Each structure stands twice: as structure tokens, then as C-alpha cells.
Amino acid sequence: MPFSTKLLNEGEDIVLDLHPHWVYFIKSGLLLLVTLALGVWMLANRWEGASLGIAGVLVLVSLGWAGLTYLEWVTTNFVITTDRLIYRHGVLSKHGIEIPLDRVNTVFFSQSIVERMVGSGDLVIESAGEMGRQNFSNVRKPSAVQNEIYKQMEANENRKFDRVNRGAPAASTAASIPDQIAKLDQLRQQGALTQAEFDAKKQELLGRM
Prior knowledge:
By secondary structure, the protein is of the alpha+beta class.
């Protein structure tokens, strides 16, 4: 089930919309295969009575678990947009985490040997705010996802600077570099820019002198 575009903000686009990697199905899938194989073997050997009934119950239970796992998989989305990271999961009740790109500090990924072979892994995202550190398991191609997050963070920062420049008076384009730094500092004090964004733009302007 794809992430609904109705939940996006104005001007926001989806970059990646991922369900968990197929390793999510390993436990329920293995149990289903084992119980089906057992049931077929018992039928082939003409088992009857209570033993065959127990095998049938096991098959039904494993089918139910596999079906529930699929519903959990299809309703779990890890989404990267041009503004946010969004994680939603839940079959009946819904749970979600949203992290604005400008609050993301660091993105880590980890993979075991087996996970590298199948293209799965875990992501850890450190951000400013109450959540601080979030772990996401069974992510497809976590290194590529990490790169995409950093790419969108940079693009988001560039768009923010463009909006600031477009909103400035036309005469400011001819302003001296110290005047531009002073205006940026005002924006920082007003909360329109973070300290890190102010420092980066300041260094860029000083480099032009």
C-alpha cells in the first residue's frame, strides 16, 4: 500500500516510499513451509485421526501468522519526502514518526554479512528534538537510503536559502557582504535560520571577500 499523497504538505513530493525488506517474512514463511510439508507428508503416508487433525490446525495457525505478517508489511512505510522522513505502521491502530529534514543530524546504517548478501539492514537516525535517536529495521539497501537522505537534506537547505533570497528586497542584492551577514543574523535571531545554517552561509559570504 503506497503512502497517501493526501498526507503531504503543499509543495512536498515523495522521493522514496519503502516497505520492509522481504526478510520480514522469514519466520512466518518458514513456519508455513514446515507445516505444509508436514501435512503433505502425513497425507502421503496415510496418517489419520488426531495426529492429522493437529497437523491441520498447525497449518491454519501458520497461514494466519503469514497473513498477519503480510498485513503488517503492507501497512508499514518508510518514506523520504523533499521535507521530511516519515515512518508509519499498524494494521488497525496506526503509529507514526515524522522527522523534518532540517532536524536530522546524523544517519547511520549497519548490515551483517547475511544482510549484505540480501540487501537488507538497519538505519539509525539521530535528530534534534524529543525523539533524539530512532532505529529502523529491515530497510532495503540502507546505504543507498542513507545517501538519499543526505541528498534531500542538502536540497532542502538550498531551497530554504533560495526562499530567503527571493524574499529579500531587490536592493539587497547589491548590499555589501557585511550587510548581508547582518541580515542573515537577523533571520537567525528570528528563528528563520538555524545556527548551523547561519554559520554555513556566513562562511560562504566571507569566502567571496
